[in-house]
Design goal:
With 416 residues, this protein is α+β, with helices and mostly antiparallel strands. The chain folds into two domains: 4-205, Cytochrome Bc1 Complex, Chain A, domain 1; 226-415, 2-Layer Sandwich (Cytochrome Bc1 Complex, Chain A, domain 1), CATH 3.30.830.10. Helices cover 44% and strands 18% of the residues. The chain has 16 helices and eleven strands.
């Protein structure tokens, strides 16, 4: 086994991977709460809490927290997704206890003071404004909302100006009291460390309120094809086209990764070669997948001049249909397997990526496989496997999101 795991008596899970050939440690405190766990009035609160945990405790001001990590030569950051929030640091191994102490203090004792809430609300609203002015980001939010129109998983992680504008000390405290509990917490670490030592430090410093893992309602995708158009005078039309997909635990997820790689996963992919290299119709064109605990999405993005919109969409649609009906060649399958394995191995040369793999899998109740086990799963895939998965997933009800100088009525025929 490449990792060690301990579940503390209070419910916190500690999982580590020891790598004695490095001098760094990446440490993450993960919580099983993300934007899909928010009520309508709380939309964006998970992300807002990510900001607020850096804004001071009774022991240290925000500036002192930053100075403390800077004095360690450490990297400090956080991120929020639809299903989890992570606070992490990467530092020289000799500073492990100090890092555990500081990260624990941040997530347990953050003041969430009203004056800090007031200023940080404005920061997040500026972040929302930046996203709204960035159509190749905003298009993905539109696509998600069209795919899951009746569930928080389809809403922006940042929330809205209206919801964020109502956040204050009381609401932040209530959210933390409900979600920042021992049963929702995973501490993951990778690098030059001793597992038992990490466990002792977490027991000493991470004094969260005790409580079980939160439950979350299932996310049901839209039952029919949908079109979402934002009419805007942009220089490009931004297109996102796809469908509901597999969840993160599905046994066919490795086959879907191969399909993604062949269809639009790199410079040799079908979409890149056909739309960019042969026809010069786009600078950015790619496929992508996002797999969650109980649902997922598979989609294609392209940005093109408005006059080329219909042609580019038809090319995307044709390649998706060709994959669905015909699958891929033996040569494409071999190349995709090698590409996936190569990117995985290169990514795992980073202690932060190794920590992230541990934490993400545990906080979402995922299957934690070794590199050799993943390679074996990928190598075992056949043309019949990927053909079956392509025929199933790519036949789903289609979602088309578009930002550009077009009216819905003028592009509605594309989904018919």
């Amino acid at each position: 086994m490449f990792y060690r795991e301990t579940r503390l008596t209070n419910g916190v899970t500690v999982i580590t991977e020891s790598i004695d050939t490095v001098r760094s440690v990446a440490l993450g405190v993960w919580f099983a709460v993300g934007s899909r766990d928010e009520t309508e009035a709380e939309a964006g609160m998970s992300h807002f809490m990510e900001h607020m945990m850096f804004k001071g405790t009774p022991q240290h001001t925000a500036a002192q927290i930053s100075e403390a990590f800077d004095s360690l030569g450490a990297e400090l950051n956080a991120f929020t997704s639809k299903e989890y929030t992570c606070y992490y640091a990467r530092f020289v191994d000799e500073h492990l206890e100090k890092a555990v102490s500081l990260l624990s203090e941040m997530v347990v004792d953050s003041l969430l003071a009203d004056d800090a809430c007031d200023s940080e609300r404005e920061v997040v609203i500026e972040e929302i404004a930046r996203m709204e002015d960035t159509p190749d980001d905003r298009i993905h939010e539109m696509f998600g909302h069209a795919l899951w129109p009746d569930h928080p998983i389809g809403l922006p992680i940042l929330g809205s100006r209206e919801s964020v504008g109502g956040f204050n000390n009381a609401k932040s405290l209530a959210f933390r009291d409900r979600h920042y509990l021992t049963g929702n917490c995973v501490v993951a670490a990778a690098g030059n460390l001793d597992h038992d030592q990490v466990v002792r430090m977490v027991e000493k410093y991470l004094s969260l309120p005790e409580g079980p893992r939160s439950t979350r309602p299932a996310a049901i995708a839209a039952g029919a094809s949908r079109l979402a158009v934002l009419t805007k005078e942009t220089e490009q039309t931004h297109i996102c086209y796809g469908m509901a997909s597999l969840n993160a635990h599905h046994e066919d997820r490795f086959a879907l990764s191969v399909i993604d790689t062949v269809l639009g996963g790199g410079m040799s992919s079908r979409l890149f070669q056909e739309i960019r290299e042969k026809k010069g119709l786009a600078y950015a064109v790619y496929s992508f997948q996002a797999l969650y605990q109980d649902t997922g999405q598979f989609a294609v993005y392209a940005g093109t001049r408005p006059s080329n919109t219909e042609q580019v969409f038809e090319l995307i649609q044709a390649e998706v249909e060709r994959m669905r009906l015909q699958g891929m060649t033996a040569e494409e399958l071999t190349l995709a397997k090698d590409s996936i394995k190569g990117h995985m191995v290169l990514g795992l040369e980073s202690t932060r990526n190794r920590m992230t793999r541990l934490g993400k899998n545990r906080v979402t109740d995922g299957e934690l496989l070794s590199v050799d086990e993943i390679v074996a799963r990928i190598d075992s895939l056949t043309l019949d496997d990927v053909g079956r998965v392509a025929a199933d997933v790519l036949a789903g009800e289609k979602i088309l999101a578009m930002i550009g100088p077009h009216e819905s009525k003028d592009v509605q025929h594309l989904l018919s």
